[in-house]
């Protein structure tokens, strides 16, 4: 019995030491921003947020897709794509299902508690769209007594109710219905995310709608990264800075938004 006990005790101690060493090795790597990168990382993206990510001809395209691809190429790692609903992205980063994510994700203090972010790559917010021949509406100050179209359940719908006195929010399940309401005259203006409004005007609503007023509730988008990967954060930020400096970012921006990126980007 004593021999068996000593044998079992020896095995248990050896196993415990091995586990401790393994955990120590993992934790030491997670704190090192100069640690080597993995050969490939899995990134998550949303099912549809035009023009950032959406399905076309059987594959996902968009500004975010081009951006993360360029960042990975510059940083020197391969990418594996996972597509999911937006509300599953941050939990997936927390559990380690994804390493990175691009989906028009706003950088917030609350999200920083559970995930990390790259430096900002896009400034978004809400913007007004009005008919091209309308010179009366120049900002939200001119919407008293006006009907403003937007998407049902969106932040812009809440913004109209909470911040634009005298305006009537007319909501639609599909965003294209809101744009068509303005074009047909059943609504005076549309309020929605600036990149989506800009993309619609460039692709469908050219010579029909124009953007007016200031960007409202501006927020920065960032590449989301799972916690405890400082080496990945560093590599992504360095790659992001490089593609901005060498003109790659500006080319992608013009491709999807039809204009030069703002100077502060």
UniProtKB/TrEMBL annotation:
Primary location class? other
- Cite a GO CC annotation: cell envelope
Name the family the entry cites: Belongs to the bacterial solute-binding protein 3 family.
Originating species: Brevibacterium linens
Name-wise, this protein is ABC-type transporter, periplasmic subunit family 3
**Keyword tags:** Signal
PANTHER family named in the record: GLUTAMINE-BINDING PERIPLASMIC PROTEIN (PTHR35936:SF38), MEMBRANE-BOUND LYTIC MUREIN TRANSGLYCOSYLASE F (PTHR35936)
Q: Where is the Solute-binding protein family 3/N-terminal domain?
A: 40-260
Q: Where in the cell is it found?
A: Cell envelope
> What Gene3D superfamilies does UniProt report for this protein, alphabetically?
Periplasmic binding protein-like II (3.40.190.10)
Range of residues in the leader sequence: 1-25
Which PROSITE patterns does the record associate with it? PROKAR_LIPOPROTEIN, SBP_BACTERIAL_3
Q: Name one Pfam family in it.
A: SBP_bac_3
* Entry GO MF terms: ligand-gated monoatomic ion channel activity
Query: What sequence ranges are listed for the domain Ionotropic glutamate receptor C-terminal?
Result: 40-259
Highest taxon of the source? Bacteria
């Amino acid at each position: 019995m004593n021999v068996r006990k000593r044998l079992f005790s020896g095995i248990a101690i050896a196993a415990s030491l091995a586990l401790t060493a393994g955990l120590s090795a993992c934790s030491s790597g997670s704190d090192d921003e100069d640690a080597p990168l993995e050969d490939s990382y899995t990134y998550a993206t949303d099912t549809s947020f035009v023009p950032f990510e959406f399905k076309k001809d059987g594959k996902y395209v968009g500004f975010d897709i081009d951006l993360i691809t360029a960042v990975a190429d510059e940083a020197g790692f391969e990418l594996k794509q996972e597509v999911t609903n937006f509300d599953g992205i941050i939990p997936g980063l927390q559990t380690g299902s994804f390493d990175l994510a691009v989906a028009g994700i706003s950088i917030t203090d609350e999200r920083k508690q559970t995930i990390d972010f790259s430096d900002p790559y896009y400034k978004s917010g809400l913007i007004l769209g009005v008919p091209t021949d309308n010179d009366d509406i120049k900002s939200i100050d001119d919407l008293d007594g006006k009907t403003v179209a937007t998407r049902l359940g969106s932040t812009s719908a809440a913004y109209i109710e909470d911040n634009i006195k005298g305006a009537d929010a007319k909501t639609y399940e599909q965003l294209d219905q809101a744009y068509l309401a303005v074009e047909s005259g059943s609504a005076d203006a549309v309020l929605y995310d600036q990149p989506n409004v800009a993309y619609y005007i460039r692709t469908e609503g050219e010579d029909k709608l124009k953007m007016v007023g200031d960007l409202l509730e501006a927020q920065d988008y960032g590449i989301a990264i799972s916690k405890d990967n400082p080496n990945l954060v560093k590599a992504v930020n360095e790659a992001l800075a490089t593609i901005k400096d060498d003109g790659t970012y500006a080319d992608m921006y013009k491709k999807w938004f039809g204009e030069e990126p703002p100077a502060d980007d």
